[in-house]
């Protein structure tokens, strides 16, 4: 696998307590995997704490890292779009800056990608229960139930996604939340991209520090609004092709 290259996008908002450990783990795992090349792209989403300065300090000592910055908070979707647009290597994935997902699982997805354009990995329900606090669990479960009901006929997943960078060409992304990942997958699939679902579960861990940025009612509502827009797009495409 020494010929593989991987861009890892790490969106971060007020993750000063975790960003260094996330970068350390990613660099350690990616270096040990023998990748031909990798890059770590931190997207600081207008943090009000020391996230940006700590990421920049880390990047100064590690040439494979770059820090991108939003002057004001724009949301997860725009952070991902910024990171995806800045990626330069053949395959791209992302991990949150809170340390809940392991870089090792990104590598497992890369090794399993094969001849597909996109691979998605789901979290085992039992692992989600162990990782989430009760309040977050109620909201995240509710979000998943609502999304399941709202996302019929869409390709969805519950964990991580990895894709070939070339599929970004000609796929306009507009999402401001994590729904941008579903947007990418479904728009690419409509254009003929091959999608694979991993035959293993990815791990999810308890947050190392800080608070969730998505387990709140306004964010859930925004997710559902964007999911509805994606469904409307899908229907218009199908009607146009009929």
In summary, what is this structure?
The protein has 242 residues and is of the alpha/beta class.
Structure, explained:
By secondary structure, the chain is an alpha/beta fold. Helices cover 44% and strands 16% of the residues. A 7-stranded mixed β-sheet has the order 3-2-1-4-6-5-7, with helices on both faces. Helix 6 runs parallel beside helix 8 (217-241) and helix 7 (179-190) runs parallel beside helix 8 (217-241). It is globular. The N and C termini lie far apart (43 Å). The model is unreliable at 133-139 (pLDDT under 50).
Mean pLDDT: 86
Percent strand: 15-25%
Q: Would you identify the CATH H-level superfamily?
A: Spore Coat Polysaccharide Biosynthesis Protein SpsA, Chain A
Q: Supply the CATH class.
A: Alpha Beta
Tell me the span between the first and last alpha carbons: 43 Å
CATH architecture: Alpha-Beta Complex
Note the main attributes of this structure.
242 residues, alpha/beta, Spore Coat Polysaccharide Biosynthesis Protein SpsA, Chain A, 7-stranded mixed β-sheet, 8 helices, 44% helix
Blueprint of the fold:
Layout lengths: L4 E8 L6 H14 L4 E9 L5 H10 L4 E6 L5 H11 L4 E4 L8 H10 L5 E4 L3 H7 L2 H17 L9 E5 L14 H12 L4 E3 L19 H25 L1
Parallel strand pairs: 1-2, 1-4, 2-3, 5-7
Antiparallel strand pairs: 4-6, 5-6
Helix pairs in contact: 6-8, 7-8
């Amino acid at each position: 696998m020494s010929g593989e290259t991987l861009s890892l996008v790490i969106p971060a908002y007020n993750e000063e307590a975790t960003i260094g450990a996330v970068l350390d783990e990613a660099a350690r795992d990616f270096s040990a995997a023998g990748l031909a090349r990798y890059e770590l792209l931190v997207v600081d989403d207008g943090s009000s704490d020391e996230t940006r300065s700590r990421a920049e300090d880390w990047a100064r000592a590690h040439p494979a890292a770059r820090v991108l910055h939003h002057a004001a908070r724009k949301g997860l979707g725009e952070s991902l779009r910024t990171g995806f647009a800045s990626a330069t290597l053949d395959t791209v994935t992302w991990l949150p800056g809170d340390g809940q997902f392991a870089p090792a699982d990104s590598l497992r997805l890369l090794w399993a990608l094969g001849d597909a354009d996109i691979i998605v990995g789901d979290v085992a329900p039992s692992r989600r229960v162990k990782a989430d606090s009760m309040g977050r669990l109620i909201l995240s479960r509710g979000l998943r139930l609502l999304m399941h009901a709202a996302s019929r006929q869409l390709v969805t997943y519950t964990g991580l996604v990895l894709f070939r960078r070339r599929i970004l060409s000609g796929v306009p992304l507009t999402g401001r939340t994590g729904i941008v990942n579903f947007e990418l997958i479904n728009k690419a699939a409509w254009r003929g991209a091959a999608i694979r679902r991993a035959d293993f579960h990815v791990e999810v861990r308890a947050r190392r520090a800080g608070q969730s940025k998505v387990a709140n009612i306004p964010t859930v509502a925004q997710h559902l609004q964007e999911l509805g827009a994606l469904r409307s797009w899908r229907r218009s495409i199908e009607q146009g092709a009929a």
